[in-house]
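Below is the data:
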Amino acid sequence: MISSCWRIARSLSRLFTPFNSHKSYSSILSTNLVIQTNKSGLLGACRRLQSNDTPKIDTRRINVSVGDKGRLVQCSFADFTTEFHSVWLRHNCQCPKCQQEHSGQRLLDFTTVPSPISVRSATVEDDWLHLLWNEEPDHQTRINITWLSEHHYGWKERTIKTWETNKTVPELEYTRLSSRSSMLELLDHLVHQGLCLIRQVPTDDQQVAKVASMIAPLQRTLYGEVFDVVATPQPINVAYSQEGLDLHMDLAYYESPPGLQLLHCMHNDPVVVGGQSLFVDVLAAAEDLRRRYPKEFELLCRIPATFQKIHYEREWPVHMRFQRPHIQLNHREEIVAATWAPAFEGPLLVDHKLVEPYFESYKQFNILLKEPKYMIEFRLQPGDLVIFNNRRMLHGRRSFDLNGGRRHLQGCYVHIDEFKSRVAILQKEMGRKMELLPVGNQCWS
C-alpha cells in the first residue's frame, strides 16, 4: 500500500516539475467537420494511477452473451451495446500468464493460440469478464470491464469545429500554468483548437524551454533544442531574415516532424513594421478541398511530394529528404495528416503522366489555403508566447522592416507523441474521461 501511494505521489509530482531531460469544444469555434474515431486509453499508465482510476462500471447493469457459434461475444453496457470477436478477446487477455501485471505488457505468444478459437462461456464477476474456450479448455481469459468499455473497436461520429467564423485565439496567463487545471486547459486548447497564446511570460533567455518543459521534454532537431528567430545577413533559413514566410509546417522533411512548436516574443519594438504571425488550420482546409475539389483532393492523397533540407554551408551540414503525399487518409477515408511546406519542397519525382495533374491540384490547394476565412493573424508583443500544433496549424509571417528596432523570437519543439501522452495522463489524473482527438500525426485512430 505504501509503495503504491509513493508511485502515485511521484506521478502527480511531475505535474508541477518541468521535464529537464521530456466532445466538448470551446465556443470560439465554428463549421462542423464530421470524423469517426475509436475510443482509446493507456493501459499501463491507467493501472499505476490507482487513486484516480475511472469510476468502476456497475457490473450488475452489464449483460454478456455468446453468439455465432462462439466467434462473437455481445456486451451490453449501460449506454451502448457492442460485439467483440473472440479472437480479439483472446489476444487481449489480461490474466497473469498473458499480460504482466505491473508493466501492462503482453506476454502471450499468439502462435500458441488455436485457430480458429471460440468461446464456450462468458460471465461477468468482480469487475471482470471471464471467458472459457472450446479449443483451449485449460485457459481462462479475464478482461477488466471498464477497460473493455473504453476499448471497443466500433466507431461513432464526433464533431470537430474549425476557425472559419470567430477567430479569437484562446489565451492563458503565464502565472496560471503552475496549476494542474490550467495546464489541462492549455492542453485542451491545443487538442481542440491547435493553438493557444500565453501572456505575460518573462522575456528571459531560454524561458521558452522552461514553458515547454512544463508539458514534455524538448525535441532536439538540426536547429538544436532552442533556436533564435532574428534577421541575419546570411540566413541559414528564410525565417532568419526580414522576408515574409509562406504558410508551412516546420521540418516536413523529417520522418516525424515536430508536434508542438513554441515561439516566445522577447523583443518586437514599436518601430518594427509588419511581421504579423499567420496561422491556418490545414486539416480543415483539406476537408474543404475534398468537398469542393474532389479530383484534386484525390490526387494530393495519392501522389508523393518531395520535402527536403539540403544545406552544406552551415555549421552542421544537413541532407534530408522525405517523400509523402500532401494529404494522408486512414482506412475510413478520414484525414489523418496534411503536410504543406513550399519552401522546403524538392523536385517532384513521379511518373510523367502525373506531373501536370499534380501541379494543377497543388495550385488549387495553395489558393484555397490563402482564402481569408482560414487566416488567423496577430502581432506578437514582448512577453507573448504562442504554442501551436505544428501538424495541424500551418504558420507563416508577414515581411517586416526593422526601422532600426529589434525583433527577436525564441522557439523550441515538443514531440507529438510526448504531447499526446501528457494529455492522456493528465486527463486520467484529473479524473476526466480520456479522449484524444486526431492531431494530424498520421495515427489512424
In short: The two ends are 36 Å apart (CA to CA). Confidence is low (pLDDT under 50) at residues 1-54. DSSP finds ten helices and 24 strands in the chain.
